[in-house]
Design brief:
By secondary structure, this protein is of the alpha/beta class. The protein is 52% helix and 21% strand. A 5-stranded mixed β-sheet has the order 3-2-1-4-5. Strand 4, helix 2 and strand 5 form a beta-alpha-beta unit.
């Protein structure tokens, strides 16, 4: 199964692509989409959308694991983040890719074993799980890889449960 994890944001949208075969991870790519900060919001959303489309077309993932929106105190920030998430959902749905949404705490639990883990702990465990020579940067890319790992583990758990029934 090929999974793209996405940590959406208007300034930085992190992504991480892995293959998950027979319980093993193979990293394909990770990084971030950085729309020019001086661009109008509509142009930044377009840049996020186009970047995601290019990644999805190149790698043909089977699943998209995206971070769910958590409640923000600032209404404007929540709206902007929601629009960035919308670009992820649109790009994936146009390509018929199944979308799975996970809260940050579930991704942290999957890679660190603790839902309240720090970003540093997540990045260090992602490095270990994917056998990387260094911690993936920026943090948004490490978070996206954690989402992909989270989905891989969740899918494996679901398959094992189905076999037991």
């Amino acid at each position: 199964m090929r999974i793209i994890g996405i940590d959406p944001g208007t300034r930085i949208t992190g992504y991480g692509l892995i293959d998950f075969i027979s319980g093993s991870y193979t990293i394909l790519d990770y990084g971030c989409i950085r729309p020019p900060p001086k661009d109008a919001l509509a142009d930044r959303y377009r840049a996020i959308y186009e970047g995601l489309c290019e990644l999805m077309d190149r790698y043909q993932p089977d699943a998209v694991a995206v971070e769910t929106q958590f409640m923000q105190k600032n209404f404007q920030s929540a709206m902007k983040l929601g629009m960035a998430r919308g670009m992820v959902l649109l790009a994936a749905s146009q390509r018929g890719i199944t979308i799975f949404e996970y809260p940050p705490s579930k991704a942290k639990l999957a890679v660190v074993g603790h839902g309240g883990a720090s970003k540093e702990q997540v990045a260090a465990m992602v490095q270990k799980l994917l056998l990387l020579s260094k911690i993936p940067t920026p943090e948004d890319a490490a978070d996206a890889l954690a989402l992909a790992i989270c989905h891989a583990q969740n899918s494996l758990r679901q398959k094992l449960t189905e076999k037991m029934v």
